[in-house]
Amino acid sequence: MAPNIIFREKDVPNIREFKVYTENGGYEGLKKAISMKPAEVIDIVKASNLRGRGGAGFPTGVKWSFIPQSEPVKYVVVNADESETGTFKDRQILENNPHQLIEGAMIAAWAIQASAVYIYLRGEFWDIAHQLDKHIEDARQGGFVGDNVLGSGWSCPMFTHLGAGAYICGEESALLESLEGKLGQPRVRPPFPAQKGGGLYGEPTVVNNVETLTNVPWIIVNGADEFKKIGTEQSAGTKVFCVSGHVNKPGNYELPLGVTFRELIYEHAGGIPGDKKIKGILPSGGSGPIVPGTDEVLDTPLTYEDMVKVGTILGSASIIVMDETVDITWVAAKVTKFFKHESCGKCTPCREGTYWLDKVLDRIMSGQGKPSDVDLIDNIAKNMQGATLCALGDFAANPIIHTIKNFPDDFKAHLAPKEEDKPAEAKPRPAAARRGAAAATGGD
Question: Using an 8 Å Cβ cutoff, are 406 and 332 in contact?
Fold first, then answer.
């Protein structure tokens, strides 16, 4: 049975409180890290195979190692934007285990010798931000944040920053733009955030997701080898799976990476209401390719590498389950409207592509679409792929390309019949003929 690395509130009530957290091993990881050289901390995180939990799955220790130690000013930025559809894991961490996040961020800051830590929260998290400020102050008074951390001579303050509720600011470069007080739009890269000129205020910056950093204290205390005993070789540790849609028990489930869809849905999330069949699954909210509810898919391990084998991604593991009653064309239209609304408009393929996808899908949904319209949206979506500064263009293309591929009959059901299939209708007579008929019958 895997330990609750992230959701420690299940084992220790009120662990959100500073006193309870420290009485139960809290900040021991930071103490241990500061007794080590920064490079040694990076090596442990590298060896653990911890991968980014925000969606990309990039190796965390490798990302930290990109920061040039020769630069005097460096930053750690915590991505707490959490705007992906169907994702609600970071909020639970922020509400119930905030000090483990604070500790993880400070360990990351020590590893790269950061000058400050910024926690960027989505605008709707204003209530959490206020509570987080209090938790940060408790950690500061305890000597774990701020000036001369644990007497090491190293100082690192921590700040919270609220965005304005824009999905695009979950993308790391758009997040940095917003954090600097600019319009939240992706940057042209290179330089990348880890490089001089590419990070926050132009300084080298590590950007990590909330769940990613919350794993770090456990890894430092227990070691990389213990972490690798959980999950799989390439996808180590536990993962918080956000399950919603047509399941009896929606919610967050912290389980080892490698659990299958079938186990997650039927053993943990309580199965499907009314024992209906699963028609489709979105494994990563609206951004990941949809997959059908076949036995092959249901028995696929939920890992970064195995999701690719069934043509999708694990992403943030925001798993939306749809039963046999769902019209997948409606799903595609709904998700497209979301991405059209959230597109920042900087890139032409994304700005124009999402507009036209939405326009044509509305025509299809109204029953006015033609078979050529399905080909049209497929073509638009494929021309958006790989043509934008950030991944939003690809995310918007996925719902179209993969719903057409996996659920073609759902689209056909909305298409207007061809001309030759329409019932014969009486053609209206010319106006002159109508007048002649009226005169013959004495009509007006």
Answer: no
Give 78-106 pLDDT, tens digit per residue: 999 999 999 999 999 999 999 999 999 99
Greatest alpha-carbon span in the chain: 109
Last-in-domain residue among 175, 208, 228:
228
The structure tokens 């004495």 sit at: 442
Q: How many separate domains does the chain show?
A: 3
Range of the domain at 249: 238-323
Are 318 and 339 in a shared domain? no
Within the chain, which residues score under 50 in pLDDT?
419-421, 423-424, 426-427, 429, 431-444
Does some domain include residue 2?
Answer: no
d(CA 295, CA 289): 17
Query: What are 215's two structure tokens?
Result: 């794993």
| Beta strands 238-245 and 251-256, pairing class | antiparallel
Domain C-terminal end among 205, 228, 251: 228
**Distance, CA of 293 to CA of 64 (rounded, Å):** 38
Strand order in the sheet with 318-323: 251-256, 238-245, 318-323, 278-286, 291-292
Using one digit for the tens of pLDDT, what is the confidence trace for 172-207? 999 999 999 999 999 999 999 999 999 999 999 999
**Dihedral (CA of 304, 305, 307, 312) sign:** positive
